Amino acid sequence: MDLRPFDKPIYVTRPYLPSLEEFNEGLREIWDNQWLTNNGPVALRFTEELASFHQTKNLTLFNNGTLALQIGLQGMGIAGEVITTPFTFVATTHALTWNKIRPVFVDIEPERYTLDPGKVEAAVTPWTTAILAVHVFGHPCRLDDLLDVARRHNLTLIYDAAHAFGVEVDGKSIADYGDLSMFSFHATKLFHSLEGGMLTFRDGGYRSTFDYLKNFGFKNETEVVMPGTNAKMNEMQALMGSIVLKHFPELLAKRREIDAVYREKLADLPGLKLHKLPNGGIKYNFSHMPVEIDEADFGMSRDQLYERLKDFNIFARRYFYPLLPEFACYRHVPVLDPLTTAYRVADRILTLPIYHTLELEEAERIANIICSLSKAGKHE
Ligand code: T4K
Q1: What number does the ligand 1 atom closest to the CA of 136 have?
Q2: CA of 319, closest atom in ligand 1
């Protein structure tokens, strides 16, 4: 069994890069057009490609996911309090704060790590205007239950789908669920456009508002109808996105294989819990490879394992730790729910490397190294 440290660093993820020839081919068109940003032809074409991929016309592109979400919230006039998850990347909560919205953190569920709809319901107050849930690691939230709570309390249902590109539920894109969804196309995501973001929305009437907001509020050359910002996707981003979209099926297939290797090797390891693959009509995207470490059974803590793996040139990540309310800028947020599950998961979670250029033998070696570091492995 190969337990040697890797010669090169193995990161939690690596961006998909097409061949330089393929990218150059697209660059030629941009050079010929002499058009670099502001709704250029490549961005318009990429929008069409994504519309066809998601089977919806109700989408618009941005230069990153964070600004997309900020603009989505602002464009829909969300205010007051929004019930959200503490187990996410900081950008989810920042998007609320930038809009002067008060985040209300409630707990997550232990298996899928997404918002617990029962806890959401219990946190509704007269000031609540929306739910902002996250399909964390690409795991769809409890869509029906959240919709039920939202409709009964007249709340807008917003999904941070930063990790959920390509996920389908009952044959429909995850973008079809909720009033608004935000997707991140950051380089670290399984689908990327260097940086980038997308909003999809149920009510097509919001399109012009979102488009004005991302372009300084311009309606036309002489009319500014709202104080917008600059959040447009440029032509280079759109070119990369368009190429990555063509290769998306093969990227997904490779991730599925890597996931299977980890599962086979780690399934029975005491003290390590694999995340449960979403089932029941869900097409998953293998966006991340989270595992939970139980210190007593595994023989070392999650943090010790995280550090020990570095000795083998393996750079796993603790997504998402610390929990949002632990950050200095959110310590003042009153938290009424003890967030028991979220704290437990944040203390145990480790996301293992998964990306299309990771060889299956490398995934196997990472898994074997993890086994060898565990209490059970040492006794073998
Ligand atoms: N909502 C959620 C739930 C999110 O997860 C995110 C972003 C957002 C909203 C906001 O969307 P964006 O505004 O970003 O579109 C990374 C990403 O920067 C961030 O996009 C992502 N979530 C978050 C989960 O992860 P870091 O600080 O962990 O990234 P970094 O630079 O440490 O990269 C991780 C690893 O990836 C590196 O160790 C090596 C590898 N890497 C990274 C880059 C940038 C490469 O190999 N090449 C690269 O170019 O935040």
Answers
A1: 3
A2: 24
Tokens of 255: 């991730």
Using the mean position of ligand 1's atoms as its centre, give its distance from the Cα of residue 270 in Å: 30
pLDDT at residue 377 in the model: 82
Nearest to 83 by CA among 135, 46, 119, 42: 119
Cα atoms found within 13 Å of the Cα of residue 220, Cβ hemisphere only: 1
Contact 173, 189 (CB under 8 A): no
158's enclosing H/E stretch is: strand 156-160
The CB-based long-range contact list for 337-342 (8 Å cut-off, 24+ gap) reads 337/105, 337/106, 337/107, 337/119, 337/122, 337/123, 338/107, 339/86, 339/105, 339/106, 339/107, 340/107, 341/107, 341/108, 341/109, 341/110, 341/116, 342/85, 342/86, 342/87, 342/105, 342/107, 342/108
The finding on whether 133 has its CB within 6 A of some atom of ligand 1 is: no
Structure tokens belonging to residue 63:
């230069």
Number of other CB atoms surrounding residue 203 within 10 Å: 10
What local confidence, expressed as pLDDT, does residue 197 receive?
98
Q: What are phi and psi of 51, to 5 degrees?
A: -60, -40
pLDDT attached to residue 210: 98
Nearest CA to ligand 1 atom 12: 65
Three-state DSSP state, 169: strand
Ligand 1 contact, 291 CB (< 6 A): no
- Residue 336 Cα distances to 61, 78, 135, angstroms: 36, 22, 23
Query: 81-84 and 102-105: which strand pairing?
Result: parallel
Question: 55, 54, 60: which is closest to 75 by C-alpha?
Answer: 60
Q: Ligand 1, from 8, 89, 287, 358: best to mutate by most atoms within 8 Å of Cβ?
A: 89
Atom number of ligand 1 nearest to Cα 186: 15
* Under-70 pLDDT residues of the chain: 379-380
